[in-house]
Amino acid sequence: MLNLRISGDELAGWCRRVGVSTNAGLDLLRVVKRESQNRPRSRCWREVAESVERGDSLHEALYRHKEQLNELFLSMVKVGEDSGHLGEMLLELAEYYEQMSSLRKTFLRSIMMPVFELCLALGVVGLVILILGMLPVPVDILGLGLIGVSGFIKYVTFLAMVFGFGFVLFWYLKNNAPHMRFVQHLIDPIPKIGPIFRTLALTRFTQALFLTMRTGMELKRALTLSFEAAAYGPITDKLPIVLDEIESGGTLYEAFYNCRFFEDTMMMFVQSGEESGDLPEAMHRLSKEYLQQCVFRLKTLSIIGFFLVFFLVAGIIIFFIFSIFSFYLGAINDAANF
To answer: Cα dihedral angle (35, 36, 37, 42), rounded to 10 degrees?
Structure first.
């Protein structure tokens, strides 16, 4: 059976409900049993409740479903249990997942209009193929042999194959980290596009640093989890450089500086955080800044996408107009010469 990852939205809700209940003094077993009822992933949560009832810790119960849960979530739950502050840790995790969910929804909203326009343009092309094929003198306006109903069916089939291939490719890349990292390295240098994905990753990275470092977790473990949470090749590939510098006695600022990747703002916050002795709070403030940058850049992406698709639609319409005009002008000339 395929074990699909539990979504960030579901984890956010679970963490918040269990965190609030635990802080209120409710028995953990009672809480997780309640969570096992009427949830999208009821089987997972039901088995977690059964494990806790048998005497396992919450972390042990959750770890049995590690294929469906991410490493950051499992590690933070363990730290919360070991420190006796499970409720507070779950509420912080809930805030983290809610922020990531909000960013994802903002991104989807930003591309919704350009995607709608593109689908509309493709639909217009298909409609034109269908209509021009029904004229007394059918017109192959694209010059590809797509005329009438048969041409329309071929056109729709081609689009379905393209979109199907795109979906399969996206799913494959999403579930194969090495190939996804390769694509991310290709995207990163692209103006206007690369900075958006980089800032999204840095938001996840700095928020994870805040969560892990404030727990007193061993630094190398905290860094490893945070780099993994970034889920962005140009960042995660820097982890060995950072760990080597830390092992050799260097500071976090020196380790990040040796990466030759992080921008001046990041370096300034890391340096001030180390000097003040409150690096987690510095990362928390920085994550808020990156969050604001993400929203602004996503709006910019939406505007760019809108105009790109607008000009594409305009170009298609102009092409059709000139094609039809040229066809009938040629027909008139042929009639006059005849």
So the answer is: 120
Backbone phi, psi, residue 13, to 5° = -65, -45
Distance CA 227, CA 230 (A): 5
Q: How many CA atoms lie within 13 A of 293 on its CB side?
A: 18
Residue 2 has pLDDT above 50, yes or no: no
Whether residue 224 contacts residue 295, with contact meaning beta carbons closer than 8 Å, is answered with no
Q: Is 141 helix (H, G, I), strand (E, B) or coil?
A: coil
Residues 35-59: tens digit of each pLDDT: 887 665 578 888 888 998 998 899 8
Residue 218 falls in which region: left (phi positive, over 0), alpha (psi -120 to 50) or beta: beta
Dist CA 334 CA 49 (whole Å): 82
- Span 283-311, mean pLDDT? 81
Mean pLDDT comparison of 126-140, 266-280, 281-295, highest-scoring range: 266-280
Mean pLDDT of 286-295: 85
- CA–CA dist 108, 113 (Å, integer): 10
Burial-class residue 156 by CB neighbours within 10 Å (0-12, 13-18, 19+). Answer: middle
Residue 325: C-alpha distances to residues 139, 146, 330 (Å): 11, 18, 8
- Residue 271 C-beta-side C-alpha neighbours within 13 Å: 9
Distance of CA 194 to the CA centre of its chain: 14
Cα separation values, 234 from 44, 57, 187, 246, Å? 33, 36, 10, 19
Q: For all residues of the chain together, what is the average pLDDT?
A: 82
pTM equals: 0.70
Contacts for 261-264: CB closer than 8 Å, 24+ residues apart:
261/234, 261/235
Q: Where are the alpha helices (H) located in 137-176, listed in sequence order?
A: 148-174
Interval 88-108: pLDDT, tens: 888 888 888 888 788 778 777
Spatial distance between the Cα atoms of 163 and 158, rounded to a whole number of angstroms: 9
